[in-house]
Amino acid sequence: MSSRVEILNDGGYRSDGRRQYELRDITIELSQQGVADGSATLTHGLTQVSVSVFGPREAKMRSQTLHDRANINVEVNILPFSTGERRRRARADRRVLELASTVKSTFEPVVQTNLYPRSQIDIYIQVLQQDGGLLQACINATTLALTTAGIPLYDFVCAVTGGVHSASTMLDLNMLEENDLPHVTVAVIPRTKKVTLLTLETRLHVDRFADIFRLACEAGQTIHKEMKHAVSNRTSMLVGAMGTGLSHGIGSGVLE
Question: Where is the Exoribonuclease phosphorolytic domain (predicted)?
Answer without folding.
Answer: 22-152, 155-218
